[in-house]
Amino acid sequence: MPQVPSTRWCPTPEQLMILEEMYRSGVRTPNASQIQQITARLSYYGRIEGKNVFYWFQNHKARERQKLRRRLCSHYQLLYSTNSLPHHQFYCSQEAPVFPLPLHHATPSPFLHQVSNSSPSVPS
Predict the structure, then answer these.
(1) Helix residue spans in 1-49 (DSSP H)
(2) CATH number assigned to the domain comprising residue 24
(3) Which of 27, 82, 98, 105 would you call most buried, defined as having the most Cβ atoms within 10 angstroms of its Cβ?
């Protein structure tokens, strides 16, 4: 039986290198025109579509935020464990910002959860 080619985009090392360099130089959310230019440049190194560029930047930005959140979480956990502050409980979640809470607020209020997760909804 013949193999069906994968529809998932697999960036070449050259494409990744260029995308990462652009990200390091400050490109975070390229507009439609920039996406076309980037796609044209990267197509020299292999198959690519504009949507691949769009989603790469979107995913890369999200992963960078996750890494930062994890580093901050680790930092605050270390800070609060070494200072042994008895009047605070540390609260760290992937969904909410990192901050200490007084013990009488051990569970965040629903309002706080709504505020921390309030971002523009993107249709699927």
Answers:
(1) 13-24, 32-42
(2) 1.10.10
(3) 98
Do residues 7 and 51 lie in contact, with contact meaning Cβ atoms separated by under 8 Å? no
Structural domain includes residue 48: yes
Total domains, the chain: 1
Length of the chain: 124
- The residues, any chain, with a CB within 8 Å of residue 60's CB and separated by 6 or more, are 19, 20, 23
Kindly report, residue by residue over 43-62, the tens digit of the pLDDT.
999 999 999 999 999 999 99
Distance CA 84, CA 88 (A): 9
- Report if residue 107 sits inside a domain: no
Enumerate the β-bridge partners of residue 88. Answer: 102
Residue with tokens 């193999």: 3
Residue written as tokens 């996406």?
35
Domain boundaries, position 61: 11-66
Please tell me whether the overall predicted TM-score, pTM, comes out greater than 0.85 for this model. Answer: no
Per-residue tokens: 31: 């507009």
